[in-house]
Amino acid sequence: MHADFHYYATYCAAIIAGYSHEESLDICYSDQFTDICSRTLLEKLKAPLSAATTQTAFELADARTDILGLQDITRIWASFHFLPHDLYIEKKHCNRYYKSKFRLICGPNGELVKETVGLAKGRSLQSAGLAMHVLSDTWAHAYFAGTPSLVINNTNYHFYEILPEGDRKINFIHSTSKPDDIEKCIYSNSIFSSSEHSIMNLGHGRAGHLPDYSFIKYRYLPAWYDYEELIKDNPGDYYRAFCQMIYAMGYLRGERDEFEVRQYAWETAAPYEERIKNILRKGQLDSSADWAAFGKELSGKDIPDFDVNRYLSEYIESEDKDDTFLGKFILAALAQKSMVTNRIYRSGNLLAGFSVDFAEKGFMGIEDFRKLAEHIGKEMRHD
Prior knowledge:
- Helices cover 47% and strands 5% of the residues.
- The chain is mainly alpha-helical.
């Protein structure tokens, strides 16, 4: 998903869920900021680097692919963009190392989605926005894993767009300058690498941005699916993601006592269903303008463009950084990353490294997290 859904569509979902215009802006900003908060940005802020929720292209190009480097990559991408669906799923006739990667495959309605939304309950609007990013990405990024892996994430020539008039072959090229061409069905993807651990094989890179476009429905042969054909219905999945966000935000607002997976705010969204589905099905690379127009219809107010610099000065100049907009986001990111990596570690899977659940240790702020991290680091060095 891109900013059109993570920012503008999330704003719309928040308004429908009952949040005010100002609250919805905080939520959707935090949702989109999850795609922005890299170590490069955190260094500029002199903020904890452990709060990184993404990696820039330059950071990935320089990333180590030894054990520690791969664990670092996995902690970020599995926590925020490719939330594992089932950490205990079984697969026959495979070794333990392959199974550990298989168990990181992303998908909606897993136990970690429930924990992600529950973690945001009673916390900041920034926590809510970050949780909505993770939740919606489980739909868009389903069937890919947030760890570099050729055997899990690779695709092949068998890739077709499903259209009413008949399927047509999707052609992949690697281009950093040319935009994807919907009319000619040409899309850019990552360069093929036969290395299991290459950054080129992280997430859905081998499928390009197709998982991030709401309009497309396609069929392909995932490497992990024993080369059986799988159909991905993005318009349907994105609508489920939208309605699940409304349901989740209703829970966060206190409308219900528990968040359950496989539950959606169908009735709440019903008056807007056709309007939403028309936006999702429209063949375009960026649907921001359509979502922004819909958002204005809902609230009567304009949605400002996303500005990455909006809250930087406030954080840099504040003495109480935990109470700033970005300070609250950072705390939400630390809690989410800690929870997910700890659950991966508890499952016996070391692809995200060793982990301690900082939330269970009772950290209350950024300084506490840093002190605890330093303390644990000293213990590991002594061991």
